Each structure stands twice: as C-alpha cells, then as structure tokens.
Amino acid sequence: xxxxLVGFWPRAVALIIDSIIVSIPSGIFYGIIxxxxxxxxxxxxxxxGTQYPFGWTGSIIFWGLYAWFCYANLxxxxxxxxxxxxxxxxxxxxxxxxxxxxxxxxxxxxINGLVIGLGYIWAAFDANKQTxxxxxxxxxxxxxxx
Length: 146
Fold this sequence. Notes:
The protein is mostly helical and 146 residues long. The chain has six helices and two strands; from the N terminus they run H-H-H-E-H-H-H-E.
C-alpha cells in the first residue's frame, strides 16, 4: 500500500483552496476576453450553451497550467494539498510523472465534475477512496507531502 488513504473532507478542502487559486487568473482572463471580444460576438451571450465549450476548455487549460507550476515548483503537490498534508501517488507509492499529474488535474477533474460532482463524492464511499478520475489514471491520495 502507498500510505494512509485520505477520505473525502481533507480532499474537499484542498480542492476548494486550489479552486480559489485557479479562479483568480482564470476570472481575470475571462473578463479580458469578454471585454475585448464582446463587440465582435454580437449576441453571443443570447445563444444558449455557446459559452460553455469555451469555459470548459479554458478551465482545463488553467488547471493544467496550475498543475504544471505546482509539479515544477512545489515538488509535485498543489498548494491546497500541501496545506492539508496530502499528496497524490501511484499505487506503488511513487511520485506520479508529469503527464499523469497533468491528466489528474485536467481530464480527471473534468470527469469528476461531469455528473454534478458525483466523481468527487465517490471517494467517500470507495474502498480505495478514489475519485472517478483516479480510477481511470490509477493514482491514490495519501497523507504526506513530497
């Protein structure tokens, strides 16, 4: 086993901390894009669902940039996970590679949130305390920092 598995609540607090950190630059980016592009989009906001693909794509890009920054500068832990004293690991306890780390924080988070956040809640009931994204990318969340 890779270490003591972490349940839902410490992970939820870490996710909230990380989400606040990611939301600041992404909010500024979306504000600038909206201000610059609005005259060219005419009635863009009145078209149902047209902004959602742009929002999801931007969200994945910002989570990816944040994950890359944390991997490169914080020894493979996000600020939220560091504050909560938890980390993601491979099943053998080793540090994930950069591609696995990026997939966890981009595609994995998208999958977890796809069905009203059920992928995140799944960790509360799963024997290995894994979210849907973690099941796909085969990583675990355990106590400790890198």
